[in-house]
Automatic annotation (TrEMBL):
Keywords: Methyltransferase, Transferase. GO terms for biological process: methylation. The keyword Methyltransferase applies. One of its GO terms (molecular function) is methyltransferase activity. This is Class I SAM-dependent methyltransferase.
């Protein structure tokens, strides 16, 4: 994530944490770089960051694909496992007390999640199946006035995959969200309308 996107994410997290003192949720922990931004904003406001990942990597991070890192393969299991690296990242930053790490698939975690949240940052799987499930699972938990942040939004298909762009468009077209900022591929939206229906598409 480029620095200006990170600053925009931090600004959104700081605003939401300060305004609501509700949990800030991230979908897609990986090794924890963006988690640090949510965690520091949560710490400053006296709330908590919650980050969700099965830690087995997305499609493009698997062996043979563009973003694969062999250093995060568990040699015993033979699959990716970014959890140890993530834990070291948090420990080194001194932010362990400000993060709850949920290890599991995003839709399953969203289905059992209870409280409203101040912000949801979607940066998980980038297929339509995964991005749609993240959108439908998590947006309904955002408090009115809270923020939805989507990463890797590329209006031009030549710049990248379209699944995050499609959920960003869906949020706007639902009438339940308005755009706050756009920084490269990072979009910040505010939940402005009333209750969302069960799949986050607005009422
Ligand atoms: C692009 S990386 C996240 C990068 C991280 N936000 C950062 O900026 O450092 C995507 C992550 O989403 C996770 N992921 C993909 N699909 C998922 C799903 N359905 N449930 C949970 N985690 C998932 C992958 O394991 C991977 O670690």
């Amino acid at each position: 994530m480029p620095v200006d996107e990170g600053l925009a994410l931090y600004a959104a997290a700081h605003e939401a944490a300060t305004a609501f003192r509700l949990p800030l949720v991230e979908v897609g922990t990986y090794c924890g770089r963006s988690t640090l931004l949510l965690a520091d904003a949560a710490r400053a406001a006296g709330t908590i960051a919650v980050t969700v990942d099965h830690h087995r990597g997305s499609e493009e991070q698997q062996p043979g694909w563009e973003y694969h890192d062999p250093e995060v393969v568990d040699p015993e299991v033979g699959r990716m496992d970014t959890l140890p690296t993530f834990r070291r990242t948090l420990h080194t930053a001194g932010l362990e007390d400000h993060v709850i790490a949920m290890v599991g698939r995003s839709p399953e975690v969203a289905a059992v999640w209870g409280p409203q949240v101040g912000l949801v940052f979607i940066d998980g799987g980038h297929t339509d199946e995964h991005a749609t499930a993240d959108y439908e699972g998590w947006t309904r938990h955002i408090a009115p006035g809270g923020l939805l942040v989507v990463h890797d939004v590329f209006p031009d298909p030549a710049d990248g995959g379209q699944a995050p762009y499609r959920i960003y468009r869906r949020a706007l077209e639902s009438g339940a969200f308005t755009e706050v900022s756009a920084t490269r591929s990072l979009r910040v939206l505010r939940r402005t309308a009333g209750p969302l229906d069960g799949d986050g598409s607005g009422t």
